[in-house]
Amino acid sequence: MKKSGRKEKRKNDNIYAIENVYEECKKILKKSKLVKHVEKIKLETPKERINADLAIPCFSLSKKPIELALKLAEFFNKYKGKRLIKKAEAIGPYLNLQINYENFAKNVIEDVIKMQEYYGARNEGGGKIVIIDYSSPNVAKPMSIAHLRSTIIGQSLYNILTFLGYRCIGDNHLGDIGTQFGKLIVAYKLWGNKDRVEKEPIKELMNLYVRFHRESNERLEELARDYSKKMEEGDEEALAIWKWIVDLSKKEFNKIYEMLRIKFDLELGESFYLSMTKEVIEDAIRKGIAKESENALVIEFEDMPSLLIQRSDKGSLYQTRDLATIKYRKKRFDFYKCLYVVGSEQKLYFKQLFKAAEMLGYIKKDECVHVDFGLMRLKEGKLSTREGRVILLEDLIKNAIELSKSLIKEAKNEEEKDEIAKKVGIGAIIFNDLKEDRIKDVVFDWEKALSMEGDSCPYVQYACVRAKSIIEKYGREISAKGLKFKNLEEEEKLLIRRIADFPKIILIAANSYKPHYIAQYLLDVADAFNKFYEKHKVIGSEKEKERVAIVKAAYITLKVGLKLLNIELPEKM
Ligand code: ARG
Question: Does the pLDDT at position 504 exceed 60?
Answer without folding.
Answer: yes
